[in-house]
TrEMBL record:
Enzyme Commission numbers on file: 2.7.1.23
Gene that encodes it: ppnK
Keywords: ATP-binding, Cytoplasm, Kinase, NAD, NADP, Nucleotide-binding, Transferase
GO molecular function: ATP binding; metal ion binding; NAD binding; NAD+ kinase activity
Enzyme class: transferase
SUPFAM superfamilies per record: NAD kinase/diacylglycerol kinase-like
Functional note: Involved in the regulation of the intracellular balance of NAD and NADP, and is a key enzyme in the biosynthesis of NADP. Catalyzes specifically the phosphorylation on 2'-hydroxyl of the adenosine moiety of NAD to yield NADP.
Cofactors, names only: a divalent metal cation
PANTHER family: NAD KINASE
Subcellular localization(s) per the UniProt record: Cytoplasm
Record protein name field: NAD kinase
Length: 316
């Protein structure tokens, strides 16, 4: 984790991205914009959201990578879906994302709705750190020709497009075939995505500091169909076998591409990471417990357990 870089106040700019379909997000955007502009920070909003937000004194930007270019921060008001949408803008610009959760789990968000005013104050005071999260780049080929390129923060998933038929694929790791699977799909995920689709498909939870890629078959009819954790330097490929039903590629549940029989999906570590702003140095274990509501009743902890021993935990 690296501290945020100081920026001259008179040149500071923040892009605000909101889920304007939620009245609460619009109200939150008003508060954020008012407090930031009062502090002398230039605020940008996206053209498609400006009318719903309806705040004067903001810079209205077309929705694209240029919207975040030169911005100190992208503040996201919504759930994980809104943050993933904002990542499309922030990643090319290298701008950190700061999510305020107005949704349900909000695993990628850093702050909750009740902390909004304090969160804005932390932004004004530049009291936050920035960490980098591994992304994945995806290339789709057919007969050696590139037919599509995209990327993902959470996962790239090859799925069947016809519910009544299984998808037939063969997985490859670093140029060597691994196994054929008759399945509903295959998830290729980052550590960040390990708590998203890969988790639902039975994959392991991977701490964000671990650099790795996950390969998780979905409902595979095969003896060997366990989730795999591979090197971040690996090239993972999933080939849709000829004669199999039509498939579809989904990246972060947002970007999609039809995959004809014979298509090959190649997944490797992304050339650019996604940068996330952090207000709290909360251990990932605590985030898991909070977000998933995990039971920890009975936990004593090492220090407490030692203190309760007759000799205070001392030996000898």
């Amino acid at each position: 984790m690296t501290p945020s870089s100081p920026t001259a106040r008179e040149h500071r700019t923040v892009l605000v991205v909101a889920h304007t379909g939620r009245p609460e997000a619009v109200r939150s955007a008003h508060l954020v914009i008012e407090r930031l502009t009062a502090a002398g920070i230039t605020v940008r909003v996206l053209k498609g959201e400006a009318e719903d937000i309806g705040c004067a004194g903001v810079d209205v930007m077309p929705s694209g990578p240029a919207a975040a270019e030169g911005a100190e921060l992208v503040m996201v008001l919504g759930g994980d879906g809104t943050l993933l949408r904002a990542a499309d803008l922030a990643r090319p610009a290298g701008a950190p994302l700061l999510g305020v959760n107005l949704g349900h789990v909000g695993f990628l968000a850093e702050a909750e709705r009740e902390d909004l005013a304090a969160t804005v104050d932390r932004v004004v005071d530049q009291c936050y750190d920035v960490e980098e999260r591994m992304s994945i780049d995806v290339v789709v080929r057919r007969n050696g020709e590139v037919i599509g390129t995209t990327w993902a923060l959470n996962e790239a998933t090859v799925e069947k497009a016809e519910r009544e038929r299984m998808l037939e694929v063969v997985a490859e790791i670093d140029g060597r075939p691994l196994s054929n699977w008759g399945c509903d799909g295959v998830v290729c995920a980052t550590p960040t995505g390990s708590t998203a689709y890969a988790f639902s498909a039975g994959g392991p939870v991977v701490w964000p500091e671990v650099e790795a890629m996950l390969v998780v078959p979905i409902s595979a009819h095969a003896l060997f169909a366990r989730p795999l954790v591979v090197s971040p330097a690996s090239l993972v490929a999933v080939e849709v076998l000829p004669g199999t039903p039509r498939a579809v590629l989904w990246c972060d549940g947002r970007r999609t591409l039809d995959l004809p029989p014979g298509a090959r999906v190649e997944v490797r570590r992304g050339a650019a990471p996604v940068r996330l702003a952090r207000l709290h140095l909360t251990p990932f274990t605590d985030r898991l417990v909070t977000k998933f509501g995990l039971p920890v009743t009975g936990w004593r902890g090492r220090a407490r357990a030692q203190a309760e021993e007759p000799d205070g935990g001392r030996r000898g």
